[in-house]
Specification:
Elements lengths: L6 E3 L31 H6 L3 E5 L10 E6 L8 H10 L3 E2 L2 H8 L9 E2 L4 E6 L12 E7 L8 E5 L8 E3 L3 E5 L12 E7 L4 E11 L10 E5 L8 E5 L8 E2 L4 E7 L8 E10 L27
Parallel strand pairs: 1-7, 5-8, 9-11
Antiparallel strand pairs: 2-3, 3-8, 4-8, 5-6, 6-7, 10-17, 11-16, 12-15, 12-17, 13-14, 13-16
Subcellular location: Cytoplasmic vesicle, Secretory vesicle
GO biological process, one term: cell adhesion
Pfam family, one: CUB
């Protein structure tokens, strides 16, 4: 029997504001080219409108679980379509147990999705008032009798292509997909850093070459001073000029890398290391390799 911390049963599904909460903690990849004869031509033509969300964590790789949603928005898939999307990637719908195994090593997505056997739910690592009803665990909507309801999907493929991840180590180097080769088109990758409470994250750009255009609307890297891509926006970066170092306000950061359907570039290497919280007298000061001030203001963290 599952404890209350492991499962949150939801009876007020259709009236809950939880359904409109933004997507959190996503790490995404491109597509395989497996064709499924069981799909209609019209549905096959839409498959490239979906994006994958892999989470990897050495060595567990988050049990091979990843989140799928439409590039045009949340909650677009019936059960049959969700199943087909996972199979298109060479995987299948994740079981409740696989989703829970991924959650236990940091997989957190605030978006309900289909699982195996027609079940719907989503994994919560950090409790919040607008996501998960303040609980930690799998928010479980149960087995849906109406398989035409539209949700996202949670797929399972332990051999899936790596793009993004959840990291808790004291230091790490991120690389764009395929680095040192050029990255591919139509990538959406999320890297999430969560270190010990009371520490900050020092982000340093080692190499950076992302398609340059006005306002970085084509390919870009975004940095968030938070555990998601909704709060704490720091900046959007493209081109080949190294951004300045960035130091977080707390113990979490999110990096989001998105590419469009044309033109690629060399990619990037980004290193982070942890550092102790500064004293009050030191707040607002920062020395970087470029000599600029990039301590982010405010203080917060996740235990």
């Amino acid at each position: 029997m599952r404890s209350q911390e492991d499962t949150v049963n939801v009876s007020q599904l259709k009236t809950s504001n939880d359904l409109s909460v933004g997507l959190l903690l996503l790490m995404r990849t491109g597509y395989s080219r497996v064709m499924l004869s069981a799909l209609s031509p019209s549905f096959i033509s839409t498959l490239k409108g979906y994006t994958a969300t892999f989470t990897t964590h050495t060595p567990e790789r988050a049990a091979g679980v990843y989140h799928r949603e439409s590039r045009t928005g949340k909650y677009q898939l019936t059960y049959a379509e969700a199943k087909a999307v996972c199979e298109y990637e060479g995987g299948h719908l994740a079981t409740y147990q696989q989703l829970e195994a991924a959650r236990k090593i940091g997989f957190h997505v605030c978006a309900a999705g289909w699982m195996a056997k027609g079940r719907v739910g989503y994994p919560i690592v950090k409790a919040g008032p607008n996501c998960g009803f303040g609980k930690i665990g799998i928010v479980d909507y149960g087995i849906r009798l109406n398989r035409s309801e539209r949700w996202d999907a949670y797929c399972y493929n332990p051999n899936g292509k790596e793009c993004g991840g959840v990291f808790t180590d004291s230091k790490h180097v991120f690389k764009s997909p395929g680095y040192p080769n050029e990255y591919e088109n139509e990538q959406i990758c999320y890297w999430h850093i969560r270190v010990k409470y009371g520490q900050r994250i020092h982000l340093q750009f080692l190499e950076f070459d992302v398609e340059d255009d006005t306002a970085c609307m084509a390919d870009f890297l975004e940095i968030y001073d938070s555990y998601d891509d909704i709060n704490g926006f720091v900046g959007r970066f493209c081109g080949d000029e190294l951004p300045d170092d960035i130091i977080s306000t707390g113990n979490v950061m999110t990096l989001k890398f998105l590419t469009d359907a044309s033109v690629t570039a060399g990619g990037f290497q980004i290193r982070y290391v942890t550092m102790d919280m500064p004293s009050k007298s030191g707040d607002g000061k920062n020395t970087t390799s470029q000599g600029k001030t990039n301590f982010l203001s405010g203080k917060f963290g996740i235990m």
